[in-house]
Structures are given as structure tokens and as C-alpha cells.
Design brief:
The protein is mainly α. It is built from six helices and four strands.
């Protein structure tokens, strides 16, 4: 597309970053892992942790799905790599974050909010602290 300006010079439309949004979204969702509240549910639901740690052999997963870290929601190739992962800073931070606080739930969002002192319409009784000059 060609446009002309006031002085008669020809300008063409810039097409530098056209069409890159779908690609970035595709790769963003490709690398997506479980959220902390989902992992918290896996850890605290009876039987869910054992089920994740002792999965059936799956040829589609890394390490046939036998070496899984529940805290980080990651599969590993063998038991040695999984044990090395337990010593990493990433794993220790994830465990600390999961133990530190309970995730925000729907019930928490429906609780009434208390924002401190309530400011309402002013009444005649509020003038008691104002000194009266005579």
C-alpha cells in the first residue's frame, strides 16, 4: 500500500512485526505447567500423590512416566536425575512456596471484605473533639 504525504513523497506501510501474536501464544501454551493450586490439591488429596508417583508405563512420557516430581510437576529420564533434581534450588523453592501458604480459593473470594475504618455520613455528635473557643 502506497500513501503520499503533503510534500508529494511516497511512503510505504511498515510491516515489521505483523502476525507474530499467534506464534507466541502457541509456544506459551506449549510450555505451560500445572499451577500451584493444582499441585497443592495433588499433594493434599488422599491417594493422588501415590497415583502420580507410581504411574503405569507410558511410552509417550519422558522416562516412560516412572520418575515424576509431584512438587514441580515434571517427568525425568531416570532415578539418578530425579534425585539430583531434589537437591536443586528450583525444587527447594517450589516446596517452600507450597508449604508457606495455602492457595487462594473460590471460598476466599466470596468472604466479606473489611477495609478498616468505615467512613459514613457525618453526624452532629462527631463535633465533640473540636475545641470550642469563647
Amino acid at each position: 500500500l502506497v500513501h503520499t504525504t503533503d510534500m508529494g513523497r511516497v511512503q510505504r506501510r511498515k510491516r515489521m512485526h505483523h502476525g507474530h501474536h499467534p506464534l507466541s501464544r502457541k509456544y506459551k501454551t506449549k510450555r505451560r505447567t500445572k499451577d500451584l493450586d493444582q499441585i497443592y490439591d495433588d499433594l493434599n488429596t488422599p491417594g493422588a500423590r501415590d497415583k502420580l508417583e507410581h504411574q503405569e508405563v507410558d511410552p509417550e512420557q519422558v522416562g516412560l512416566g516412572q520418575h515424576y516430581c509431584v512438587h514441580c510437576a515434571r517427568y525425568f529420564t531416570d532415578d539418578k536425575v530425579l534425585m539430583e533434581h531434589f537437591l536443586t534450588k528450583f525444587h527447594k523453592r517450589r516446596v517452600r512456596d507450597l508449604l508457606k501458604e495455602k492457595p487462594f480459593t473460590l471460598a476466599d473470594s466470596q468472604l466479606p471484605v473489611d477495609n478498616g475504618k468505615k467512613i459514613g455520613p457525618r453526624t452532629d455528635d462527631d463535633d465533640d473533639d473540636v475545641p470550642v473557643s469563647m
